[in-house]
Amino acid sequence: MKEKFSDSGWLLIYKPEGIESFGIIRKLKFKYLFHKIGFAGTLDPLASGLLLIGVNKATKKISEIHQKQKTYKVEIHFGASTPTLDAEVRFNFKKIIEHKINDRIEHLKKFIGKYEQKVPNFSAHKSQGKNFYELARNNEIIEDRFKPVSVFSIKILYSEYQKLGLEIDCQTGFYVRAFAEELAKSLGDIAYASSIKRLKIGDFSLNQSTPYEKFLDFSSINDLHSHLITI
């Protein structure tokens, strides 16, 4: 019989690549009995990093926390592109990289501030009641949709011929995968996001998180209590 968990607060989980955010919720619900559970901000299956999970009364604050500033680490791979804009599927195009590495700094500056970002075809954005990714997988025509996004800062971690590592501070709703394509187009090239990791949501940091597998291995409800940030 599942143990009932009645306290309220936040669980900071380190999500690995290869599992859906909802998959982690399902596994936690299978092991523990919560009154309510949810998370602030979906991570793509191939993205890793901080997944902030609210349990019980904390779920009422999820929409508020979701609006907080977020920080991501991304590696952009130039010279190839994929339909999903990440490494989930194989390349659909390849080309010789033509831009100069030193040009990247000036082009990155163009994206700091507010701008209209094209919503990726493979996303949970809806059109006529269907998710974009459902339409894309069925090869249905998707009208271009744009949404306002805000980027506060972009830090270059490393810059190589084929790879660019960045740390990006942005507002919620920013598509990191789409940004990889946008930057490449600005430079006259193609690219995809080869890895994405979320580092922060508001004041919550990845450094405070615990690998999600550990939550499934806890032997008692007290272990779960010890990792809860109460509200």
Q: What does this protein structure show overall?
A:
The protein has 231 residues and is an alpha+beta fold. The protein has 2 domains: 3-67 and 203-230, Pseudouridine synthase, CATH 3.30.2350.10; 70-201, 2-Layer Sandwich (Pseudouridine synthase), CATH 3.30.2350. It has helices at 21-31, 62-66, 104-109, 132-137, 176-186, 212-217, 221-225, and strands at 3-5, 9-15, 32-34, 37-39, 48-55, 70-78, 80-81, 93-94, 113-118, 126-127, 130-131, 146-159, 163-170, 191-201, 204-205, 210-211, 228-230. The strands form 4 sheets. Strands 2, 4, 5, 6, 9, 12, 13, 14, 15, 16 and 17 form an 11-stranded mixed sheet that branches. A two-stranded parallel ribbon has the order 1-3. Strands 7-8 form a two-stranded antiparallel sheet. The chain is elongated and about 60 Å long.
